[in-house]
Amino acid sequence: VTHDDIVAAARTLVRERLTVGTSGNVSARHAGRIWITPSGVDPAAMAATDIVEVDAAGSRLGESPHAPSSEVGFHVGIYGARADIGAVVHTHSPWATAVSCTRQAMPPFHYMMVGTGDGTLECAPYHPPGSPGLAHGVVTALGGRAACLLANHGVVATGRDLDAALRMAREVEMLAQQYCLTRLAGEPKLLDSGQVAELIEIFQAYGQQQEDE
Ligand SMILES: [Zn+2]
């Protein structure tokens, strides 16, 4: 991963309308370092030299002229809690944010929900943006999953690399749209725990198959 890859990911979020202006942020871990988008820089104007390097506590290292994203707290919190995660994306994508404003988890209403890990998407309790309380709440709500919602705020998506984290951000947004539409259509009929367990096996076999290719 390079600083350019992080800039490209931040621009992808804007291009795909998962975020607007400076409201999203992106980070990646490489060889024990954490690189994150700067605070207050529009991705359209962002250069590789703007990417900020921080340590495991979120303190700035290196020579960027900028402060790290104001949400650096949950980014480093996630890396500290999850050795399997190599990239984190945060957006206010509209459908996922709409669900977050209900402060409810998204249940296993569709088989693709198993892409989160266990078929659910938890919602971290409301805390002000950039606060230690939000960072703690995000790490707890994420647990062992690939994504979570942030009450009255947005969504965090993760992956083993930037591409995987972007894929998860898109997938969560699609699922949130489908969930909102389902609730308009009627009461969702949820997958039961046996059906979710069966899907987890199918997803794991599929993931293994892709790694073998
Ligand atoms: Zn935010």
Largest sheet: 8 strands, mixed
- Which cofactor or ligand species appear? zinc ion
Please give the number of β-strands. Answer: 8
Strand order of the largest sheet: 4-3-2-1-5-8-7-6
Number of helices: 6
Keywords:
alpha+beta; 213 residues; 15% strand; binds zinc ion; eight-stranded mixed β-sheet
Structural features, described:
The protein is α+β, with helices and mostly antiparallel strands. It starts with a helix and ends with a helix. Strands 4-3-2-1-5-8-7-6 form an 8-stranded mixed β-sheet, sandwiched between helices. 40% of the residues lie in helices and 15% in strands. A hairpin with a 3-residue loop joins strand 7 and strand 8. The protein has 6 helices and 8 strands. Helix 2 runs parallel beside helix 4 (132-142) and helix 3 packs across helix 5. The structure holds zinc ion (ZN). Residues 23, 71, 90, 92, 129, 153-154 line the site of zinc ion.
How would you summarize this macromolecular structure in one to three sentences?
The chain has 213 residues and is of the alpha+beta class. 40% of the residues lie in helices and 15% in strands. Helix 2 runs parallel beside helix 4.
What is the secondary structure topology, with strand pairs?
Layout: H1 3-15, E1 25-30, E2 33-36, E3 52-54, E4 60-61, H2 72-81, E5 87-91, H3 94-100, E6 123-124, H4 132-142, E7 147-150, E8 154-159, H5 162-185, H6 193-212
Parallel strand pairs: 6-7
Antiparallel strand pairs: 1-2, 1-5, 2-3, 3-4, 5-8, 7-8
This protein binds zinc ion.
